[in-house]
Amino acid sequence: MRKTLLAAAAVFLAVASVRAAEEERRTLTVTGTAEISVAPDICYMSFSVQTRHKSAADAYRQNNELMNKVNAAIKAAGIAAKDMQTTNFTISPEYHYEKGSNKRIFDGYLVSHTLNVKVRELTKVPDVLDAAVNAGANQVLGITFTVENPKRYASEARVDAIKAARVKASQIASLTDVKLGKPISISESEPGRRILYPQAAMMRNGGGFDEGVTLEPGEIKLTHTVYITYEIE
Predict the structure, then answer these.
(1) In a shared domain, residues 158 and 223
(2) At residue 55, does pLDDT exceed 60?
(3) Looking at residue 137, which CATH number applies to its domain?
(4) What's the pLDDT at 166?
(5) Number of compact structural domains in the chain
(6) What are the pLDDT digits (tens) for 175-214?
(7) Domain boundary, last residue among 146, 165, 180
């Protein structure tokens, strides 16, 4: 019994010593952020075909005919089928309210079909835009230039972020009259990106584009952040 009590006491003292040491440890936590500029390597485009008719079946038929033409035109512009995807399709009734009586009047049906397209060769973006609109797409919902895999650039940004964190920690230590020790904890965030939207939305009223549209991809800003905790004395 006495040996058991002694062993328990020893364990308790050991745990207490570790906790005391942890409580006495002084630390400094800093963040370091780096931003790099890269050229976009992909463009995401979103087109919509909208048709209206008193009959839902006729509105659907007209929409289907137009979207088939849009699909064919985009493929003819050099886009593979695997890079084209329907993301939304709706059929909905439309009404308006009669002035004065506030009576709801049925107008017909609206069919909306949205197609997203990935353009991997940026020189094809104007051609794809012209092809889709001239074939019958009456809404361009968005054109986004970005990088497909920002993690490819993480190494370069990580080095700069760690350097920034180290400089910040050294400066704080110097100003507060403490000595910077070794890092005891390091973590990082996923690379973030600021995306350029050179053409957020357009709408076609009537005919297609007679001339090619010029779009500038610009640059993408990628950010990387690290969090480092240092021992200080």
Answers:
(1) yes
(2) yes
(3) 3.30.70.2970
(4) 94
(5) 2
(6) 999 899 999 999 988 766 655 444 434 434 444 444 555 6
(7) 146
Highest-confidence segment of 14-23, 52-61, 215-224: 52-61
pLDDT tens column, 111-165: 999 999 999 999 999 999 999 999 999 999 999 999 888 888 888 889 999 999 9
Q: Is residue 153 part of a domain?
A: yes
Q: Is residue 212 part of a domain?
A: no
Give the per-residue pLDDT at 42: 94
Domain CATH for 36: 3.30.110.170
In a domain, 205, yes or no: no
Closest to 45 in 3D by CA, of 152, 122, 149: 122
Q: How far apart are CA 139 and CA 142, in angstroms?
A: 9
Going from the C-alpha of 147 to that of each of 50, 68, 233, the distances in angstroms are 30, 29, 44
Both 138 and 174 in one domain: the answer is no
Residues 131 and 141 in one domain: yes
> Residue 46: which domain range?
42-146
